[in-house]
Amino acid sequence: MSRLIAFIIGSGPNIGQHTSAALKAKGYQVALGSRKPVVEQVKKDGYFPVALDITRPETIKEAFASVNKELGPPSVVIFNGSVFSAPPIPDDPLSTPLEKFTEMSAVALSVFAAAQEAVAAFRAESNKDALKTFIITGNPTPWQPFWKTSFFSGVLHKTDEWRMTELLAHAYAKEKFRFYFASLVNAETGGVLDPLSEFWTSGPQHAKVYTDLATWPDQADWDYRFTLKAEQWEKARG
């Protein structure tokens, strides 16, 4: 039987913390990637710490090399990182310095780099019999009009990731590699949560959904939208 190994990129106290615990409870060895991991605490909690920076795509390849060496190639990869930076002049998105915009735009490149490394890991002999899943933490902004300039950068790179997920889910379906853009949505509208503050305590719901997606044998909808009840939105709506 294959060893169960998962790599979570973006291991904050909300989604990352709850999802890592849920996967660990399912028997996964879990690597946690963050910019400045508290190494001893992460190890004490039973995880493998990995340093990376999602605004520097070259660090993603290095991070996977570390996970592959210490734990083995992961069969579950979750990209839970994002960058939001409000423009220095409110309601003037083009006041964002080009250097800052370039840094924020690099997040989509890091997703691409992570997907490349994940596919290589999925093809490893040790994952021959494993369910292989790549999940991106999404949101409704790619398909819903959204005018808040404070989220300008995040809207753009999430839109890139949304389209990328669609392409990858179809391109690798023949190898049974599952790709998901998983978004918590408003149960009534399917759009952005209202109040948005509910997102910051939604770790348990994300953990439930991500664990389900990682363990289901078949590809579900690549654009997977779910509610605070941890139910797929289309089903919950009916």
From TrEMBL:
In terms of InterPro entries, this protein maps to: NAD(P)-bd_dom_sf, SDR_fam
Provide the GO MF annotations for this entry. Answer: oxidoreductase activity
Q: Does the keyword Oxidoreductase apply?
A: yes
Q: Which UniProt keywords apply?
A: Oxidoreductase
**Pfam families of this UniProt entry?**
adh_short (PF00106)
UniProt similarity note: Belongs to the short-chain dehydrogenases/reductases (SDR) family.
Name of the protein in question: NAD(P)-binding protein
Which organism does this record belong to?
Roridomyces roridus
